[in-house]
Design brief:
Elements (H helix, E strand, L loop, with lengths): L3 H11 L19 H12 L8 E8 L2 E8 L7 E5 L9 H15 L3 E4 L11 H15 L7 E6 L1 H15 L7 E5 L11 H4 L10 H10 L22 E6 L5 H13 L4 E6 L14 H17 L7
Parallel strand pairs: 3-4, 3-5, 5-6, 6-7, 7-8
Antiparallel strand pairs: 1-2, 2-4
Length: about 300
């Protein structure tokens, strides 16, 4: 049964327009300003304090600004390569370092977070190419593929899957595993849950059409590095997929899981009753988010077991 606390907090998020004295939720349309949206997200992110047991070390990864997010006593040779969300149009180390700190603390594994290129200025394949470049950079620094897990939420969850597929297609040694939270796996956005769940979810209305089109641009949305569900999904590393039943991306996540399992990939599908888009990053605000975050961190540690992990 869904917790009362989650119902309260999700209800507040869904009705966040009321705090801005607006009677109706925001609808993303042709008047949407990417620049204004980024500024508002950056402003809100700047107020979030980091946990005291986290150390941030700026670095450069293949010309991209990046940050090491390091918990106390993390093993040197293990890493989470984290791909941030933001609808393909927003997100950065600034907006996500606090979120990624939760994964790093929960797993006691350091994370590498990086600023991949964003749409609409840089449509497909810029983002996936940057994610592959970040992974190759880790290999160049001496990290073993078996010591890397790729993780991401929302658009970052999509890019996590696309990156694994791109690495496989290019015969690059694959990481130990992947974690994909609330991904869109078919960028035509035609799955039934986009229609049945849009009133239940917390994603801005119509963002799935406008933002994904910024990323797709003039490309065919059926390309496998754009829509991971369209790819051959055999010979991928074990993947944890996490989604809520109230998400617009519910069907996309389940459909990807079913296809990947049929093709022999080890899939852990975690479906949470009543939960909304990317809810684990809301941990520890309510029990479901806290448990989902714990499960994800356990999966990461299991994929990286040995090499000094206790």
């Amino acid at each position: 049964m869904q917790s009362l606390r989650s119902r309260l907090i999700i209800g507040l998020i869904k009705n966040r327009h009321l705090f801005k004295m607006k009677m109706k939720p925001e609808v993303v349309d042709e008047n949407f300003s990417v620049e204004e949206f980024r500024r508002s997200v950056d402003k809100a992110s700047g107020r979030i304090k980091l946990p005291k047991d986290i150390r941030i070390e700026p670095t450069e990864v293949s010309t991209m600004y990046a940050e090491w997010i390091i918990p106390k006593d993390a093993p040197e040779e293990k890493v989470i390569l984290y791909i941030h969300g933001g609808g393909f149009i927003s997100g950065s180390c600034l907006t996500h370092r606090a979120h990624v700190s939760k994964f790093a603390l929960g797993s006691r594994i350091k994370a590498l977070l990086f600023d991949y290129r964003l749409a609409p200025e840089h449509p497909y394949p810029a983002a996936v190419n940057d994610c592959v470049a970040a992974y190759l950079w880790l290999l160049e620094q001496g990290y073993l593929p078996s010591n890397i897990v790729i993780c991401g939420e929302s658009a970052g969850g999509t890019l996590t899957l696309a990156t694994l597929i791109a690495l496989k297609d290019q015969d690059i040694c694959l990481p130990s595993g992947g974690v994909s939270i609330s991904p869109v796996t078919d960028l035509t956005c035609s799955a039934q849950s986009f229609t049945t769940n849009y009133k239940n979810d917390i994603a801005p209305l119509n963002s799935w059409s406008v933002w994904t089109q910024y990323y797709i641009a003039d490309n065919d949305p059926h390309l496998p590095w754009l829509s991971p569900q369209k790819a051959s999904l055999d010979n991928l590393p074990p993947i944890l997929l996490c989604v809520g039943t109230h998400e617009i991306h519910l069907d996309d996540t389940v459909n990807f899981a079913q296809k990947a399992e049929k093709q022999g990939t080890a899939i852990t599908l975690s479906v949470w009753e009543g939960m909304v888009h990317a809810f684990p990053i809301l941990s520890p605000l309510f029990p479901e988010a806290k448990k989902a975050m714990s499960d994800i961190c356990t999966f990461i540690r299991q994929r990286l077991e040995g090499c000094g992990l206790q």
